[in-house]
Amino acid sequence: MLDDLTSGFNIANSLSLKDRYNEMLGFTPDEVEWLMEATGVDKSLIDVDMEFLYNGYLFHANGENKVYNPSMILYFFDQVTSNKNNPEYIIDENLKMDYGRLRRLISDEQNSATLLKIAQDNSILSDITLKFSIDELHENKSFVSLLFYMGLLTIDREMEGSLLLKMPNYSIRTIFWEAETSD
């Protein structure tokens, strides 16, 4: 989409869908463990399932390991070290503000129906469009691709010649629900 907004960005390469970069876009479980030690996070203060809340991202069907969302896990660790407790809110309000844009996108009836289907089924069968225009967001394939690029969907597996995309974790399900039910 940056291509559509500025003429100089068309020289970039998108690496996000290449299998060798899958783990580069998040924290692996080992990196999360290392990060806890390096930042002094007291594991005894954590009484939630971090994997359930923040893990689950896969950026290529052949990717070996799912990764944690870096923004979410760093927010969580900051809350644990600052408050000596799990955060009261599992999702950083700043991140939720970014996803406020989702509400504007679902003002389109087709996009709203797609989002509702994803929220109900927790997944959708689609391909990921590598390049699309902001003017094409009313097209289902482009809208679903945007949800993938925003981190709201991730690859589950290849299925029927396409990709089964799903919500990666509970935090994202919460964002979907709030976007779908808000006025």
Quick summary:
With 183 residues, this protein is mainly alpha-helical.
Written overview of the protein:
The protein is mainly alpha-helical and 183 residues long. 44% of the residues lie in helices and 8% in strands. The protein contains 9 helices and 3 strands. It has a 3-stranded antiparallel beta sheet with strand order 1-3-2. Helix 7 (109-121) packs antiparallel against helix 9. The protein is globular, with a radius of gyration of 17 Å.
Please outline the major beta sheet.
3 strands, antiparallel
User: Which word captures the global form?
Assistant: globular
Structural class: mainly alpha
Which value, in Å, is the CA radius of gyration? 17 Å
Order of helices and strands: HHHHHHHEHEEH
Helix proportion range: 40-55%
Mean of the pLDDT scores? Answer: 83
- The strand order across the widest sheet is 1-3-2
Regions with little confidence, pLDDT below 50 for 5+ residues: none
User: DSSP helix count?
Assistant: 9
What share of residues are in beta strands? Answer: 5-15%
SSE arrangement:
Elements: H1 2-5, H2 29-39, H3 50-54, H4 70-83, H5 93-98, H6 100-105, H7 109-121, E1 123-126, H8 140-149, E2 154-159, E3 162-166, H9 170-181
Antiparallel strand pairs: 1-3, 2-3
What are the salient characteristics of this protein?
9 helices; 3-stranded antiparallel sheet; 3 strands; mainly alpha; 183 residues; 44% helix
